[in-house]
Amino acid sequence: MKIIEASVELAQELDAEKIMRHIERAGRVCYKSESRISDKSAEKFIANIIKSGHESVIEHVSITFKIICDRGVSHELVRHRLASYCVAGDTVIPSYVNSKSRSSKSRTIETIYNWTQDPKCHAAFSQLVIRSFDEESHTIVPNKIKKIFFNGVRDIFEVKTESGRSIKCTDGHSFFTEEGWKKLSELHSGIYVYVNGVPLLENEDWIRHNYLVLNKTRTQVAKEIGCCESTLYKAFRKFNIVKPLSKRPNRRAGYGVKSMFSEKQLEDISKRMSGDKNPGYKKNREELSVSGGYSEAHRKFFKVDAQCELCRKTERTEIHHVDGNPRNNSEGNVKFLCSKCHRLWHRENVTGAFKDKIISITYVGKEKVYDLEMEEPYHNYIANGIIVHNSQESSRYCDYSGEKFGGELTFIKPCFWREDDENFQLWLETMEHLEKIYLTMRKNNARPEQARAILPNSLKTEIFMTCNLREWRHFLKLRTSPRAHPQMREVALKIFHILRENLPVIFSDINVDEKI
């Protein structure tokens, strides 16, 4: 077991002179006083705009800190959620509509930001409902934006997926993968990320799970989907979903039933109907019909034990053409997908999610980036059909019993107890006891996401936090107050000292009581 103190460090190099000049150029545009810029004018200009309350100018510069703290503090930090979502201005944010009579609308994040700058659009912004991702049920849920921020111009990378989706974002942007949330800098081609897909009414697996496994009533399922029972019943008929009243005998083999032909008979039929002997064969590929293309692909690639290449299921596998052309039955253009993943592939702005493979990550230069702060409890949103989030070490996917963590847990020392205090000794004994239980549970084959149920707030975590200068001022005024939580205040004071030392003109007017 390790006991360490909370710490912060800059995650970037700060050039104070360059930052000051950049802020002055942006601010002078507002006042149309660019002609007054000189080698020594920046400091006085910035001091005056801060004094006058015109702090929107300093939003054009963002600073990132790496913070090591306990999980109690990290949960408070993520409430700010300011610059963790850094996406390009042309990123499309679809609205959430749970009704067939209305269609979803898509707007760029830059358009939504401009709404907040126009008093006439404030009502529209307050009513906007967009999409978040529920990690437990893997479904898309409605959520609202608390705040939206412009974070200046930053380096941008474009991520493209196999289904044709793409997004431009910073390398600190996080995506939901099979192993949880991961930053773009940790991803590469071939990794699967979750993207927005099929609506629940067309999601056979979800309906079966809720109706048959969870044993919900038709009324309950229809209410969750947002449709009437008669519409849900059509989905039951489509997917042949029947809640059994009793065990029923298997049907006997007959005409049109699987296994009616022996393997030898199937082989003979294949030989007899192959190539130009098949009535549907076309020498000119352009004359081949869509159904003929699928039939040819089925004859050419059919496997009895075919698995879905996305979810590895073997039920209801279908043939999918990557380029969308069913006449192109080359080996690299044909893949097997289950019916659910096949539908998800072709649907973007609807209420489901599926795994999509990254095919490329490319640096595209510098662009304006924007951030969202979402309502609790879903701190993520759908951008260009891809599920995105901020970055924080997750105890769900971290195996603290492994070599990566030295086979031990690390805890943050409470700043409000001395080591000779009886309460500190009780805390220490509790941490030692919990570590032993956690390691025992892992030896008993409990998964990390199960064993984490006993982990306390004092567990060490790491989180990257990016804010523009205006929001850092707001953060420090709140979190350095004597009324703030002692451990949060401990972190905030460390950040304050670094910022005041590097950018005194911007932060020296904040009055802070240094006593903890």
Count every beta strand, where a strand is a DSSP E run of 2 or more residues: 19
Mean pLDDT across every amino acid position? 78
Shape summary: globular
Strand content: 15-25%
What is the C-alpha radius of gyration, as a whole number of Å?
A: 28 Å
Summarize the main sheet: 6 strands, antiparallel
Q: Would you tell me the structural class of the helices and strands?
A: alpha+beta
End-to-end C-alpha gap = 26 Å
Oligomer: single chain
Proportion in helices: 25-40%
Q: Which blocks of ≥5 consecutive residues have pLDDT under 50?
A: 81-85, 246-255
User: What is the tally of helical segments?
Assistant: 16
Structural account:
With 516 residues, the protein is of the alpha+beta class. The protein has 16 helices and 19 strands. Strands 4, 7, 8, 9, 12 and 15 form a 6-stranded antiparallel beta sheet that branches. A 4-stranded antiparallel beta sheet has the order 11-10-17-16, with no helix packed on it. It is globular, with a radius of gyration of 28 Å. Residues 81-85 and 246-255 have low confidence and may be disordered.
Features:
516 residues, 6-stranded antiparallel beta sheet, 19 strands, alpha+beta, 16 helices
Structure described in brief:
The chain is of the alpha+beta class and 516 residues long.
List the topology elements:
Layout: E1 2-4, E2 7-10, H1 16-31, H2 42-52, E3 62-70, H3 71-77, E4 87-88, E5 92-94, E6 106-108, H4 109-117, H5 122-127, E7 129-134, E8 139-161, E9 166-169, E10 174-177, E11 180-183, E12 192-197, H6 204-213, H7 218-225, H8 229-239, H9 263-272, H10 290-301, E13 317-321, E14 334-338, H11 339-345, E15 352-374, E16 380-383, E17 386-389, E18 410-412, H12 422-443, H13 448-451, E19 460-468, H14 469-479, H15 486-502, H16 504-507
Parallel strand pairs: 1-18
Antiparallel strand pairs: 2-3, 3-19, 4-15, 5-6, 7-8, 8-9, 8-15, 10-11, 10-17, 12-15, 13-14, 16-17
Helix pairs in contact: 1-2, 7-8
